[in-house]
Amino acid sequence: MRYADARNQISTGDLIALRKKHGLLPRLTRLITRSPYTHTAIALWCGAGAHRRLLVAEAKASGAFLTPLSQYAAEDFDVFLAPREVGLSIESAIWETLGEPIGYDVLDLVRIALNRLADVPLPSHDNALKICSALSATLWLLAGWKPRYLPSIPAPDDVVAALAVPPLLEVRA
Questions:
Q1: Cα–Cα separations (whole angstroms), residue 96 to 32, 82, 90
Q2: pTM greater than 0.85 (yes/no)
Q3: Within the chain, where are the H helices?
Q4: Domains of the chain and any CATH numbers
Q5: What sign for the dihedral angle of Cα 82, 83, 89, 90?
Q6: Segment 95-124 mean pLDDT
Q7: CB-based contact 161:13 (threshold 8 Å)
């Protein structure tokens, strides 16, 4: 399905799990995690009428942002339905969390790699800096999500695995 066909089927709170194919970090992520998922974000509808926009709350190397999902229209991604317990409180979690500065934790990428490749344990909790998947999970957790299992620093595939459901939509460029 194309982005234009999927757009109106995406709801606030849904997980956008990108399958980026280009760039060093996506290639390393796929190699280390053995998963097609290289980035995650949480969908957020804003505005009304002609000004209604579909954004995603995401963490990038330069911090946490709201980005138009259309920026990813040329990428493949899967959409996962937000967990039931998240409900409308996800909007509050997004606005509250993104109202504070959030830095990107490059060391978390190293921690995940060491955990996956050499079985080095992850720390017992994540710090205030967030990679994309940790931000996505944090937003859902703040909104009431109670996953059966989630690592302290989840990689994109960990967040998808914690859902334990197939994608709602498969968007292909």
A1: 32, 18, 10
A2: yes
A3: 3-6, 24-33, 89-98, 106-118, 132-142, 156-163
A4: 3-171 (3.90.1720.10)
A5: negative
A6: 93
A7: no
